Structures are given as C-alpha cells and as structure tokens.
Amino acid sequence: MMSSFCLMLAAVLLAQISRACDSDNEEQLLTTQDPEVSYAQAYGYTPDTWNALDNQPASAGSPVDDYSNLYEGRTRNKQQHVVKTLQSAENGVQSEGRLALGGLGANLINAGFFNNRFTPANTWRPFATLANRIPVSFNPNFDNMFDMFETCVSPNGDAGICAPGSVCSLFGGRPTGSCSFGKVCCINTINKCGGVVTLNNTYWQNPSTPIDAPSSCSLTVRTDTKLAEQSKKPICQIRLDFISFTIAQPTAGNCVDTFKIGEATTVAPTICGDNSGQHMYLDVPSSAITPSNVQFMFTFAAETASRSWNIKIAMLPCGASYLAPVDCLQYFTAVNGKVRSFNWLDVTSTTTRQLNNQDYNICFRTELISGLKATQMCLSVCPVRNGDAFSITTPTTTPAAVAAAAVVAAQNTLTASLAIQAVAQAAFLAAGAGATAAQVQAVNDANIAVRNDQAALASAQATSVAANANAATLSGIGTSAIINAVNTATCLYDFLLIGGARDANDVGADRYCGNALNPALIPVAINTQICTPVRPFRITYHTDGTEAAVAAGTNVLPAPADTANTGFCLNYEEK
C-alpha cells in the first residue's frame, strides 16, 4: 500500500516538473479567464464596455475619464484597477515559482484524488492535511476546486459552474460539457420545496408533482464564506432570472398567489401572474461579515390556476463590476432593450394585470456610444398586437367628472322617487276597497316618476361610461389637476417617475400615468417618445394598494376607480 502511494506521488511530481518546462504557449493555455469576465460573458453581458481604464475606445485620442460616480460606484474605478494590477503582479510571482515547494492539496489531494475515496459520512480523512506537509508546487489556476465564479454554459444554454465531477455529484448537480483542467460544467437544479441553495447558478424549478392549493413552497439561499463552495469571494448580491414564471393572476390588482422575498437588504415587492423573462437584483450584507439566509416563498390560494416556475439564482461577489447599483431592483446593461412591469403581457385582457403595492427602481448602466458616454436615454411604448403597452391608473376629465356627478344625482333622485312610491303604495293597500281616487292617483304618479328617474339614471350612466372610456385613453402627468372645480389626483397614487423627461417639442414632465405616454399639459390619447438627460439613468415605478376609487378627505385627494390597468412595456435606447 505504501509503495503504491509512493509510486503515485512520484508520478505526480514528474508530471508537475515536466509541465514547468513546457513552452510559453502551453503556459498561456493553462491560464484561466478572469472570473468576472467569464461570468459576464456567461450572462451575455459586455463587461465594462464603458470602463475607461480597461476598455478605452479605439477612436479616442486620449485616455477617457473614469466614469464611476456615487450611483455607478460599483463599477471598477481607478483604485480598483490598481488593486487588480497588483493582484496580477502577485499572481505572476506565484506562477514563476512553480518549481518552488508549494501546496499539492488544491491540485489533487483536496480536489478528490485521495479524499473522495472516502464517503461523505466518513469523517476520517487520512490525507486531509497531507498537502500542507508535502512541498510540491502547483498550477495557481487549480487553487480552488470550488471556484464558484468560474462559470460555464452547457450545450443547451444553461449556466453552471466549473467543478470536479465528484463535487458536482456531491451537490446533486448534472454534468454537461467540460471545463479546463478536467472539470465539468455542473448544472445544479432543485425541484422541491424547502431546500437550501449554496451554489452559484442554481435553477429552482417547480416540483414535478402537482401543487396542492392552498399551500406554500419556499427555498433558502445561504451566503456564508465559511462554506467551502463560497470561500473564493464574499457574496454581496443575488440575481434572480425568471426563466419561466406563471402563477395565478391578481384580483383587482391584489395577488392571490404570491411570490415574496425575505431577509434581503432590498425590499422587493410581492409579485404574481406571468413574469417569464423578468429579473431582480437583491442586495445582501457581505457574506464575509454577515452570513444571510434569503427566503424565497410561493404561497398558493385555493383557486385553480396553472403554476410553474424556473428561476436561476446567481450569487454575485462583492466588488464585481457587474453588480447592480444600490436600491435598483432591476438593472439593464445594454444600449437598448425592453423594460416592463411585473405581470405585463401582450394579451387581450378585461381584468387588472397591474399589481398593487409596487415601489421599486429600474436602473440602466450608462453605455459608450461611438466611443462617447451616452448623454440621454429615450423611452417609447412597445409595439403590441393584443395588449396595452401603457396603462397606469385610469385618468379622468371634467366631462367624465360631470357625468359621474350626474349619475350620483340621478341615483339620489331615483331613491327619493322609490321612497314616495313606497308610501303611496302602502296607503293604497291599507285603504283596500275604500281607497280614494286621490290615493290611486298618487300611486300612478309615483310609478311614473320612478320609471322616468330610472330612465334618467340609465342615460346618465351611459353618458358616464362613454366619458370615462374617452378619458381612459388619455395621458396623465403630475400629481393633481382641477377636475370639475375639484382638485383631483392624477399621477399621485400610481405612476412612473422619469426625471427630466421631455418630448421632441421640449414639453416635459416627471410623473407619467394614464393610458398614453405623453407629457402634454392637456391630456391626449397619443403615445410619444420621451428622452431624459438625467444621469444615472433610472425610472421608478409605484402603485398603491387599491384599484377602487379614493374618496376625498383630510389631506387626501379624490381619485376615480381604476379599470383594467395593465402596467407598462417600454423600449429604451441610450443615445
């Protein structure tokens, strides 16, 4: 046994020495990609396209200023660049000492060559400390078998992590494809309730068995640098990608099925409905300082509904250039694209799809356009086939308010007529056969009055419906407007905030609502493109907790009831 071990160890030493004598070309092949770049490419990002220190535009005649600021301060700035340079220099020193005596453990022993001969239940590890006692050099790119930020993409497009096959199996992963140094591209999937996630790029899918209702299904994401698989770098953010997401639709804007997030620094809204293709960024305390247990929970109501999901969970390291800015639930990192509210879908709907109690920021990284920093971001409604691309609160107008007041008046008149009719009929019935002609006439007059008042009410209601339908197509801006001599809320309770936005005619507004995106002072039913020069680019979406009418009160402005709001879908482009 001992002689076999010695032969094996000698073979390993000879292999290490022979690799040290290889050409520079082989040395370059053994160099792994920057984990941050690898991660960003796995996501389809163009990492740091506007970072002047790492990617200066080819057309620039002189160095471009560092674009980091208080808002985009999570991107690499000059100090971070210096640190990275120093780290690279240190790694170079380590690489040059490959024939010096170092630690074999991270290369073979700790990677499973010896220790994986023993089952996880067996705590006896005869070779656990051998690496620290054998002076053998190692390739620095092999120094962490749990390098969770060396991401990979499987042949079918799923994101995973590069890990030894034995480690992938230990965590229940699915090996698909290969990585460098004999590692596999490990795809980790959980399709149960009540699990705990500690690996980057994990997919949480709905259970294969039917979901009972009412019930709940939860998952915990644990961040802690004491975990071997997270020892590479501390975690500061979690990104959720809703690859697929379908649960019950809301009732009057209130979720009956719910998806909630707890124990994150970011206060995420409760969502439901259809959210495939959406994403969220969640801030968490640095896992090197404060471990976190972030909770994801579905709650299902008793009603029948189609429920399924596939959520990709990515753990983002502190200091990474691709972190979202603080307080940005969503973060877009392309020159152009599409942004939409949760549960917005291009479908015909007569019910409310807009979710209540939404309050979050949507942020956009400032990109380089032709070598120069973008100076504005323009927004326009998405083209739709069946749905409504912009429907945030139901606006009202003076004609609609007058018609609504006429309905109230007609209802009051009818109520009074019904009361008179009831009295006349009671007197007539009490008199019986001895009823007088006057009593008979009173009943007839009361019946005629009721019929007339019913017709008047129907007419007022029809007028109100038409006026409201016309008003519902119009744009809305600001917080309030004088409607029928009453100060009435406009974009006060539900709104999209786009600071400094203006149209092509230089007409501007900050708050937008209604059924058309337009800053016009007089509401119109025409959507138009608006652009904002305010950087960093950001919009804020807010809805209150009800779709019902808001009655006037002390420090409370009245507002009409909302009808079938859908939320928004906007195309954005930086220029």
Strand content: 25-35%
| Shape annotation | elongated
Q: pLDDT under 50 segments (min length 5)?
A: 16-149
Structural class: alpha+beta
Helix content: 10-25%
Mean pLDDT: 80
Number of helices: 9
Gyration radius from CA atoms, angstroms: 33 Å
Main sheet specs = 8 strands, mixed
Q: Number of DSSP strands? A: 27
Distance between the termini: 70 Å
Signal peptide: 1-20
Protein name: CUB domain-containing protein
InterPro entries: CUB_metazoa
Domain CUB: 325-574
Textual characterization of the structure:
The protein is an alpha+beta fold and 575 residues long. It is built from nine helices and 27 strands. It has helices at residues 2-20, 24-29, 35-43, 78-96, 105-113, 130-133, 165-170, 398-431, 437-472; strands at 151-153, 159-163, 174-178, 184-190, 195-197, 202-205, 215-223, 235-246, 258-262, 279-283, 292-300, 308-317, 330-332, 336-340, 359-364, 368-369, 372-373, 377-381, 390-391, 475-477, 480-483, 486-489, 495-502, 508-514, 530-532, 537-542, 567-574. Strands 1, 2, 3, 4, 6, 8, 10 and 12 form an eight-stranded mixed β-sheet that branches. A six-stranded mixed β-sheet has the order 13-15-26-23-24-20, with no helix packed on it. A hairpin with a 5-residue loop joins β23 (495-502) and β24 (508-514). α8 packs antiparallel against α9. The N and C termini lie far apart (70 Å). Residues 16-149 have low confidence and may be disordered.
